[in-house]
C-alpha cells in the first residue's frame, strides 16, 4: 500500500507551469481549437446539427471543461509547497507528540473530481489526508488540499491518484509519513437497453482506497488506528483488512461490462469518432497509446452513442379517449422516483436523477403501470438534453396519454456542476411542469409536492 517511489516524483515536482493559468495563452489556443474540432466530429456522429441553437457553443464549452478538468498536467507541486512550511517546536519535554514534534495532523473531507482514464467520465472524490510532521515544522493546511487537486485534475484511477498524492506530499514536505484515504464515486454508465429493462439500475459505483508512506507504510502501525478513528467522527468506517485488497480490480463500470459484447460494440462504432476522442486525449497532454488509455476512446464513444439522435417513435394510444369523465370522478394518482439518465447538450456531460409524475385519473387507470411511464422518461432522457426541456417533454407526452391534468417534477445531479470549474459538490436541480388542473389549482399542486419522498440525488 506504499506510495510510488520518490524518484518518480522528483521530476514531477520540478516540471510543469505556474499555477492558476486560467486564461489560455497564444500557445494553448490551438489546443482548444483542436478539441473543438474533435467535439464537432462527435456531435455529427451522434446525428446532431452542430449549428442548431443549444449546440453552437458546445464544442468550445467542452474544450474549456476538459482543459479545466485536466489543468493538473500544467501545475507543479513545488510551487504550492515552497514557502508554506512553518516552524513549530511541539512538546519540549519529549513526552508525547504534538505539532512539529510528531503529532498526527488530519485534513478531512476535501471534495475533488477527476476524469476516469478508462472512460473519460468524471468521478467524484472525497479525500482525507493525514501526515506526521518532522523537523519541527508544519505545512499550511490549505496546501494539502491544493496538492491533492493537482493530481485529481488529470486522467486518473483511484489507487494511482492516492499513491501520487501520497508520494508528492512525502517528497514535497519531508514529513515522518503521509496517509491518504479516498472515497470515490463513479457514474454507473448505463446503456439504453439495460436501463429500459432495469428500473433499479444503480447510479453509482463506489470504492475506497488508501495509500501510506514513511511511518504509514506499516499497515498495523497505531497511527493508522488514530487516523481511522478521527475519520469515524465523520461517519467513515474503514476496515483495516480492506487496505490489502483496495486495488485488486478495476472499478470503472465500462471495464466490468460483458467483455465479448463490449468489444463487438466498440469495433462496430464510428472510427472517426474514436479518432476524435484520441485527439482530445492527445491535446490534453496525455498519450492515447499509454496502456491504460488504449481502449478509452472506444469506451467513451460507446457511452455517447447511448444519446445519439435516432428516429425512434413512441406509439402511445390515449386511454379511453371517447369516455368523458367528470372532475369529481377523477382521483389523484402518482408515480414517484422514476430513474432517468441524460447527457447535457451544453457540455456533453451526464446528468441523472429521478422523475415524479402526478395525474388525475379514474378508477382502474392505475393499470397503466409504472413501466410505461418509465419508458417515456427513458425515451426523452436518452438524448442530448437540457433538464427544462426534458421536464416539459415528459409532461406533454403523459398529458396526451392520460388527459390534460399532469404535473412532472425532475430532480437531477449535473456533473457539469462539479467538473468544469464551478465545483458545487452536492448541489442538485429541480424543475416542474404543471398542465391542466395542476397549473390552476394550488391545493392539488401542494398535495402532490408534499407527497414526494425526501430523497437525495447526491451520493457524495
TrEMBL record:
GO cellular component, one term: cytoplasm
Record's signal peptide: none
Source organism, top-level taxon: Eukaryota
EC number(s) on file: 3.5.4.16
Any Gene Ontology biological process: tetrahydrobiopterin biosynthetic process
Keyword Kinase: no
Catalytic activity: GTP + H2O = 7,8-dihydroneopterin 3'-triphosphate + formate + H(+)
Oligomer and partners: Homodimer.
Role of this protein: GTP cyclohydrolase 1 is the first enzyme in the biosynthetic pathway leading to folic acid.
Listed name of the protein: GTP cyclohydrolase 1
Organism per entry: Ziziphus jujuba (Chinese jujube)
Amino acid at each position: 500500500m506504499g506510495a510510488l517511489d520518490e524518484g518518480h516524483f522528483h521530476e514531477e515536482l520540478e516540471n510543469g507551469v505556474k499555477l492558476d493559468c486560467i486564461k489560455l495563452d497564444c500557445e494553448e489556443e490551438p489546443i482548444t481549437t483542436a478539441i473543438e474540432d474533435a467535439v464537432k466530429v462527435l456531435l455529427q456522429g451522434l446525428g446532431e446539427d452542430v449549428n442548431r441553437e443549444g449546440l453552437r457553443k458546445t464544442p468550445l464549452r467542452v474544450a474549456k471543461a476538459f482543459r479545466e478538468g485536466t489543468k493538473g498536467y500544467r501545475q507543479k507541486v513545488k510551487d504550492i509547497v515552497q514557502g508554506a512550511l512553518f516552524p513549530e517546536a511541539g512538546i519540549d519535554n519529549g513526552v508525547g507528540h504534538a505539532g512539529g514534534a510528531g503529532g498526527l495532523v488530519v485534513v478531512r473531507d476535501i471534495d475533488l473530481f477527476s476524469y476516469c482514464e478508462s472512460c473519460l467520465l468524471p468521478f467524484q472524490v472525497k479525500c482525507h489526508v493525514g501526515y506526521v510532521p518532522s523537523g519541527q515544522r508544519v505545512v499550511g493546511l490549505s496546501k494539502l488540499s491544493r496538492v491533492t487537486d493537482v493530481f485529481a485534475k488529470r486522467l486518473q484511477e483511484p489507487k494511482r491518484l492516492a499513491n501520487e498524492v501520497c508520494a508528492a506530499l512525502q517528497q514535497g514536505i519531508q514529513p515522518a509519513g503521509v496517509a491518504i484515504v479516498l472515497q470515490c464515486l463513479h457514474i454507473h454508465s448505463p446503456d439504453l437497453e439495460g436501463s429500459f429493462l432495469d428500473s433499479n439500475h444503480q447510479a453509482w459505483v463506489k470504492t475506497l482506497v488508501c495509500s501510506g508512506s514513511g511511518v504509514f507504510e506499516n499497515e498495523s502501525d497505531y497511527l493508522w488506528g488514530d487516523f481511522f478513528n478521527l475519520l469515524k467522527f465523520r461517519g467513515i468506517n474503514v476496515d483495516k483488512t480492506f487496505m490489502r485488497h483496495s486495488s485488486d480490480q478495476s472499478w470503472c463500470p465500462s471495464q466490468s461490462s460483458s467483455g465479448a459484447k463490449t468489444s463487438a460494440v466498440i469495433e462496430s462504432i464510428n472510427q472517426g469518432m474514436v479518432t476524435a476522442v484520441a485527439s482530445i486525449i492527445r491535446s490534453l497532454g496525455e498519450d492515447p497509446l499509454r496502456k491504460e488509455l488504449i481502449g478509452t476512446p472506444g469506451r467513451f464513444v460507446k457511452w455517447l452513442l447511448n444519446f445519439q439522435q435516432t428516429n425512434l417513435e413512441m406509439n402511445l394510444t390515449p386511454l379511453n379517449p371517447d369516455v368523458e369523465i367528470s372532475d369529481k370522478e377523477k382521483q389523484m394518482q402518482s408515480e414517484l422516483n422514476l430513474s432517468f439518465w441524460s447527457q447535457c447538450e451544453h457540455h456533453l456531460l451526464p446528468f441523472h436523477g429521478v422523475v415524479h409524475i402526478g395525474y388525475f385519473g379514474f378508477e382502474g387507470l392505475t393499470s397503466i403501470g409504472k413501466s410505461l411511464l418509465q419508458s417515456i422518461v427513458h425515451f426523452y432522457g436518452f438524448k442530448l438534453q437540457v433538464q427544462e426541456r426534458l421536464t416539459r417533454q415528459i409532461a406533454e407526452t403523459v398529458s396526451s396519454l392520460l388527459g390534460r391534468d399532469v404535473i412532472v417534477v425532475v430532480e437531477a445531479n449535473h456533473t457539469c456542476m462539479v467538473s468544469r470549474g464551478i465545483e458545487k459538490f452536492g448541489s442538485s436541480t429541480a424543475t416542474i411542469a404543471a398542465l391542466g388542473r395542476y397549473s390552476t389549482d394550488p391545493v392539488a399542486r401542494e398535495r402532490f409536492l408534499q407527497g414526494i419522498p425526501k430523497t437525495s440525488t447526491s451520493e457524495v
